């Protein structure tokens, strides 16, 4: 007798449930049950891999390849200092301050093809990435932004529409002070002379000739740096930016001025 | 290829002319067939003429010539390779580090141990042996005293 398949609705005949047993009768045990043997998820001992994961600082990676790509397409302007605001506006990186992101870190992915002279400011940078940028005549700085400042930096317009005065950027916490005062990481709190020394050291280590940026035409732009309490390049803490009337309001009270110049 | 060492800004009369050789992939090589191979294997090679390298002291030069005989070619150039990393720059840094260690090994002086130190060491060994024998004799006495002899 010829075998004929059931063509009823939802599959026909056994309806894809198999033959008898818990499978067909819909009584299978819970996920992870191994018939009584200690299941895998209970046999393996606990270890704190993810302890405090929600308190860990995260930095969105930015590869040199991506940076070169953005510059080549014209989304990021290398003739101006490159800031997190510039990168966010160019949609080069997406930073989520609410998800424990503390900024952007430079990664050495495109070190072989990178060839752009830029003044970059990131939150962390690896040694090879710093070397690759300085080799092409650029400047790298690492600086700290506390979460509130970071949010303001990433979405400036939304902040200005709030009508609040620009807050002053907080100084880094204890464990990061050491990182940002180290010239090898090009920290913003480091000694400039030590930074110059570190540049030479890196050039010697990686075997390239360190280009003299003081003889460069863009030297002024390349040496532009933010004050440790400043969030935006042209604006100081305490100012209110009025988007509708295109005006900036500055505080005149003595106490406020003293507070904002800290 | 091997002209004299090029003086560099930002470093002591340091090295050599550099030749960079990104490796080309040949079909015969047995490597996992991924598209990343031409990018991943960036080889850095540094070579310089050892005999005319005046930034290394003479004695060190001789020692290097004998120590790294296998790395010197017919034209007298010392060749240092590195292809450990995917980045040219890092491979170059590794090459330079290798050269630095070579020169350091060649310039290190044999350790001169002063007479007092050798004397001290010999005295120490003798003292250890004396003490060991003393302990052995004590132990032997203890064991002997436990023996019950017929007399």
TrEMBL record, chain A:
Major place of residence: mitochondrion
Q: Region (Disordered) spans which residues?
A: 1-34
Enumerate the Pfam families for this protein: Ribosomal_L27A
User: GO annotations under biological process?
Assistant: translation
**Subcellular location per the Swiss-Prot or TrEMBL entry:** Mitochondrion
Q: Which domain of life is it from?
A: Eukaryota
Q: Where is the composition biased (Basic residues)?
A: 1-18
Task: Identify the residues that the record assigns to the Large ribosomal subunit protein uL15/eL18 domain, covering every copy.
Answer: 61-141
Task: Name the PANTHER family for this protein.
Answer: 50S RIBOSOMAL PROTEIN L15, LARGE RIBOSOMAL SUBUNIT PROTEIN UL15M
Q: Which family does it belong to?
A: Belongs to the universal ribosomal protein uL15 family.
- This protein is called Large ribosomal subunit protein uL15m
Q: Which organism is it from?
A: Charadrius vociferus (Killdeer)
């Amino acid at each position: 007798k010829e075998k004929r398949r059931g063509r009823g609705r939802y599959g026909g005949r056994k309806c894809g449930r198999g033959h008898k047993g818990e499978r067909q009768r819909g009584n299978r045990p819970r996920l992870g049950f191994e018939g009584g043997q200690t299941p895998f998820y209970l046999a393996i001992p606990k270890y704190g891999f993810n302890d405090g994961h929600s308190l860990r600082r995260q930095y969105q990676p930015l590869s040199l390849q991506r940076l070169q790509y953005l510059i080549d397409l014209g989304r990021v302007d290398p003739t101006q200092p490159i800031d997190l605001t510039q990168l966010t506006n160019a949609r080069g990186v997406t930073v989520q301050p609410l998800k424990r992101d503390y900024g952007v870190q430079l990664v050495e992915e495109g070190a072989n093809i990178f060839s752009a002279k830029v003044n970059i400011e990131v939150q962390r940078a690896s040694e090879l990435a710093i070397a690759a940028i300085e080799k092409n005549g650029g400047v790298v700085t690492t600086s700290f932004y506390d979460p509130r400042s970071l949010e303001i930096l990433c979405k400036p317009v939304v902040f200005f529409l709030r009508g609040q005065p620009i807050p002053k950027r907080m100084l880094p916490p204890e464990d990061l002070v050491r990182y940002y005062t180290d010239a090898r990481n090009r920290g913003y709190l480091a000694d400039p002379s030590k930074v110059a020394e570190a540049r030479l050291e890196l050039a010697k280590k990686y075997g390239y000739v360190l280009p003299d940026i003081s003889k460069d035409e863009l030297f002024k732009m390349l040496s532009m740096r933010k004050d440790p309490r400043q969030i935006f390049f042209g604006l100081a803490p305490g100012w209110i930016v009025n988007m509708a009337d295109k005006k900036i309001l500055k505080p005149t009270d003595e106490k406020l001025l003293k507070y904002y110049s800290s | 290829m091997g002209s004299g060492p090029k003086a560099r800004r930002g470093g002591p009369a340091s090295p050599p002319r550099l030749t960079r050789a990104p490796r080309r992939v040949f079909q015969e090589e047995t490597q996992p067939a991924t598209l990343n191979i031409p990018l991943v294997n960036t080889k850095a090679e540094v070579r310089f003429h050892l005999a005319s390298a005046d930034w290394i002291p003479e004695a060190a030069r001789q020692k290097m010539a004998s120590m790294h005989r296998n790395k010197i070619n017919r034209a007298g150039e010392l060749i240092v390779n590195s292809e450990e990393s995917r980045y040219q720059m890092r491979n170059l840094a590794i090459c330079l580090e290798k050269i630095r260690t070579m020169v350091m090994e060649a310039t290190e002086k044999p350790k001169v141990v002063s007479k007092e130190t050798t004397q001290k060491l010999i005295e120490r060994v003798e003292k250890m042996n004396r003490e060991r024998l003393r302990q052995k004799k004590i132990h032997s006495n203890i064991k002997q005293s436990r023996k019950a002899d017929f007399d």
